[in-house]
Amino acid sequence: MTRRTTALIAKAGLASAALLLALLWLVLYPALLPEGMLPFDARFTSMTFDQLRNIMLALGADGRSLYQFVLVPVDMALVLAYGAGIGCAIVWLRGEPDRMTIAEMRRRQSAGKRVRSAVGSVLLVAPFLAAAFDAWENVLIFRLLGQGEGVSIRLMEELNRTSGYKWAFLALAGVAFVVQLLGYLSRRGR
Questions:
Q1: Other CB atoms within 10 A of residue 63 CB
Q2: Which of 79, 78, 97 is nearest to 23 (CA)?
C-alpha cells in the first residue's frame, strides 16, 4: 500500500468515524435510551448486574429490538471506520518503514533504538486490537439483547472483560497516535 493510499484510508476512516459517532450520540442514543442512561459499550468500568437489568427493562422489547438491529450495526460500522482510520493514520505518521532484515537491524542499531522500534511496532497494532475487541463487544451486546429480560451473568462478565480490553487498547492507540504525530511534526520541522 502506498503512502497516499494509507493517507486516504486514514482520512476517510477518521471522517466516517466522526460522522457515525455523531449519529450515535446525537440522534440514536437520545432517541432510544432514557435520559442519563449510558449504552452498554460506553462505560469505562464494569457494568453491574443491576445496571444491565435496568437498561434491559428500560428499553423494553421494542427498544431491545431497535438497539439490536439498528444501533449494533451502526456501531459495527464505527468500529471498522475508527480501526482503519486511526490505524492507517499511525502508519502514515510513522513514515516509510525501514527496509532492513532483523539481522541488519541488530547490527546497525543500538539496543535502545531496537527497544523503541519494538515498542513502536506494538503500538501500531493497538487500534486494530481495539477495533477487534469492540467488534466482539458488539457481538456480545447483540446476543445479550436477543435474550430479552433474562440476563446471563456469564455473558455480562464476558462483556465487561471485552469492554475493558477495548478501552485499554483504545488508550494505547491514542498514545500511539500522539507519539507518532509528535514524531512526524519534529521530523517535518527539521
A1: 19
A2: 78
Helical ranges in 95-110 per DSSP H: 102-108
Q: Which residues of 100-123 are buried (b: 16+ CB within 10 A; e: fewer)?
A: eeeeeeeeeeeeeeeeeeeeeeeb
Helical pair 72-94 and 3-22, crossing angle rounded to 10 deg: 150
- pLDDT(8) > 80: yes
Average pLDDT over residues 183-188: 85
Copy the grid coordinates of residue 122.
506494538
Cell numbers at 35, concatenated: 435520559
What is the value of pTM for the model shown? Answer: 0.84
Please name the amino acid found at residue 37.
M
Q: What is the DSSP letter of 25?
A: I
CB 40 within 8 A of CB 144: yes
